[in-house]
Specification:
The complex is a heterodimer of chains A (about 110) and B (about 110).
Chain A: E1 5-7, E2 10-14, E3 19-24, E4 29-37, E5 44-49, E6 55-58, E7 61-65, E8 71-76, E9 85-93, E10 102-104, E11 108-113
Parallel strand pairs in A: 2-11
Antiparallel strand pairs in A: 1-3, 3-8, 4-5, 4-9, 6-7, 7-8, 9-10, 9-11
Chain B: E1 5-7, E2 10-13, E3 19-24, E4 31-37, E5 44-50, E6 53-57, E7 64-68, E8 74-78, E9 87-94, E10 104-105, E11 109-113
Parallel strand pairs in B: 2-11
Antiparallel strand pairs in B: 1-3, 3-8, 4-5, 4-9, 5-6, 7-8, 9-10, 9-11
The chains are: A mainly beta (about 110), B mainly beta (about 110).
Chain lengths: ~110, ~110
């Protein structure tokens, strides 16, 4: 069962365009992280959000955590070819026995063409 | 500060063989988690080690086992390899269990089972 659904799965855009990636679940998460992964490499942590409604900005990237802590979005303004990669959201679940397990979405492959 | 390192980077095995993958955690981190990432998918949690004890396990059979050493480095062992075990194996370290669950990933070991 995929607890985190990412959309879209694939996105191919021109340099300068804006885009939004969504990460949705019916479950509540205590925190949610966004990663970017290059082919053949490990995921690199971009941001962690922990509070419902929280918005964080990282240069041209804006991350939002839903009020109910069940969903998140990543918005990129004026995309550049260097933004190309696989974007992954990962949530840590609330409740007893929290082992620090991260539940990942299936990822969004972004291609930004010059 | 040294990041997470993994060895080897690539490995080719045949069905039925055994494999050991190694991970050194980031300086100051006492928790190590292992993930399996199939091609085109998000990482799947295998298990986590905290202070040398297993602290949670995902939906993987017992032939996947691990260890954590006093210096917090870790090993992942897989016995009786199957073709479906071919994947990128990722190690992630974190400062502690719980909290925001920020995990920092190594570059991964690409395992191919023939």
């Amino acid at each position: 069962t995929q607890l985190l659904e990412q959309s879209p799965q694939f996105l191919s855009i021109q340099e300068g365009e804006n885009l939004t990636v969504y990460c949705n679940s019916s479950s509540v998460f205590s925190s949610l992280q966004w990663y970017r992964q290059e082919p053949g490499e490990g995921p690199v942590l971009l941001v962690t959000v922990v509070t419902g409604g929280e918005v964080k900005k990282l240069k041209r990237l804006t991350f939002q955590f839903g009020d109910a802590r069940k969903d998140s979005s990543l918005h990129i303004t004026a995309a550049q070819p260097g933004d190309t990669g696989l974007y992954l959201c990962a949530g840590a679940k609330v409740g007893s026995g929290n082992t620090g397990k991260l539940i990942f979405g299936q990822g969004t492959t972004l291609q930004v063409k010059p | 500060e040294t990041g997470v390192t993994q060895s080897p980077t690539h490995l080719i095995k045949t069905r039925g063989q055994q494999v050991t993958l190694r991970c050194s955690s980031q300086s100051g981190h006492n928790t190590v988690s292992w993930y399996q990432q199939a091609l085109g998918q998000g990482p799947q949690f295998i298990f986590q080690y905290y202070r040398e004890e297993e602290n949670g396990r995902g939906n993987f059979p017992p032939r996947f086992s691990g260890l954590q050493f006093p210096n917090y480095s870790s090993e992942l062992n897989v016995n009786a390899l199957e073709l479906d075990d071919s994947a990128l194996y990722l190690c992630a370290s974190s400062l502690d269990v719980g909290g925001t669950n920020e995990q920092f990933f190594g570059p991964g070991t690409r395992l191919t089972v023939l």
